[in-house]
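quick one before i forget lol
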Amino acid sequence: MAFTPALHAEWIKIRTLRSLIGALCATVAATVVFSALAGLDTDGDDADPLRSVFFGVTFGQIAAIAFGTTAVADEFRDGALRMSLAAVPHRGRWFAAKLTAIALPVLAVGLVTGLVTLAVGSAMLGDKANELSRAACLRGVLGCAVYLTLMALFAAGLTAVLRSGTAALALLLPSLLIVSFVIGDLSGTVADFLPDRAGQAVLHSATDGAPGPWQGLGVTALWTATAVAAGAWRIRRRDA
């Protein structure tokens, strides 16, 4: 089977699974709601307005990760992968179609999430939102979409390596919560180069440590590429 029909088949799988549609909806809802709450709670003069507007991405990414994890994990249940590979014997082509079918809806939902979050978050932030430039707002919207897409693909690659959605979530979610809520705003450490901390630098007005906004997304992209490459290797080497 060629790539286009393989992609179409993978898209049919995604749009017919309620859990995956629910994860996409939860990505928007969680990001917008928590960003609105962060806007209400911002009183300090030194608060980062862009970070406040897009604060909910920290929670929305969990739903995006669940989407990428579930989309791949379903293939390892009840012999589903055997059927998929029977239709698309070229494993690399099948995995590429699967990843594309994951990335495109997350990217689209991420753009919608970014636009809605910007509107709602700015409204909740009040006069402090006037400090945001158009460039910063555009960076926030695009960065939100790209970051969520990278994290979904990162989770998908890791799931392919572990061949288990439960194992992937058990590894990812604690690390995200520890980095985001325990380490907090501590910068200048190795934590700045972890996938979530690095990627979310694009959602800050300014970064005191390294890496910078777009460099941070580049670091996350490297993590994602590594996970995807490892997942592709695992699928090629292991029996269905």
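fyi The radius of gyration is 18 Å.
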